[in-house]
Amino acid sequence: MKKILTLFLIGILISSCSNNDDEEVIDCSLFDPAFPELYIRLVDETGTNLIENETIDPEDITVEGDFSNPGFRYIPPHGFAEPDSDIRKYDNTLFLFIPNESKFEYTINLNDTTSIILEFDARFAELPCEVSYFIPTKLTFNNQNIESENEESELIFLAEIKI
Q: What does each of the 163 residues of the chain score in pLDDT, given as a tens digit?
C-alpha cells in the first residue's frame, strides 16, 4: 500500500511540474513596451536648423498625410538639459505621428507657399500582450533616401531634411 501511495504522490508531483520553463510568462498589466518615434529636423545646405534660427516658424507649420489623423508636435529646446547632452539632438525638431501602415506619406506645409513631401516605409512589429506597431525603416525626400541619424535604437528615427 505504501508503494502505491508513493507512486501516486510521485505521479502527482511530476504532473504538477510539467510547466515549460522555457516559455517566458509576461504579466501584461506590468508590460510597458517602448514605442517607435519619428523626428524630422529641417536644415539649410550648411546644416543650420531652420527652426532654431527662426527662418521657419513652428506655429506656421501644418501637416497632411495620405492616412487618417496625421499630426505632429514641435519639440522646443530642453531648458534644463546640459548643452552637450544627447537629448539636445531633438531640440527644434518635428515629432511626426506614425500611422498603422507599412507605407505612408507626409506633406509638411512650412508656410502658405512652401511644402515638402516625405515618403516612409515601415515594418510591422508584434509584441507580447497584443501590442503591435509599425517602425519607420525608410524615408524618401526628393527621390533620395534619407538615413536615420540615430544608430542607438531602431525605434527612434531621426532624419535631417535639407531644404
A: 556 655 555 655 555 554 555 567 889 999 999 999 999 999 999 999 999 999 999 999 999 999 999 999 999 998 677 777 787 899 999 999 999 999 999 999 999 999 999 999 999 999 999 999 999 999 999 999 999 998 889 999 999 999 9
Instruction: Using alpha carbons, list the distances in angstroms from residue 69 to 58, 97, 98, 121.
Output: 19, 9, 10, 18
Q: Residue 56: which residues within 8 A CB-CB, separation 6 or more?
A: 42, 50, 110, 111
CA–CA distance, 157 with 116 (Å, rounded to integer): 18
Q: Are 40 and 63 in contact (CB under 8 A)?
A: no
Q: How many domains does the chain have?
A: 1
Residue 16 lies in a domain: no
145 lies in some domain: yes
Q: What is the domain range of residue 89?
A: 23-162
pTM value is 0.82
Count of all residues that appear for the chain in the document = 163
In a domain, 11, yes or no: no
C-alpha cell at 155: 525605434
| Alpha-carbon span 63 to 36, nearest angstrom | 19
Residue 135 corresponds to which amino acid?
Answer: I
Examine residue 55 and state whether it is found in any structural domain, yes or no: yes
In the block, residue with C-alpha cell 516605409: 121
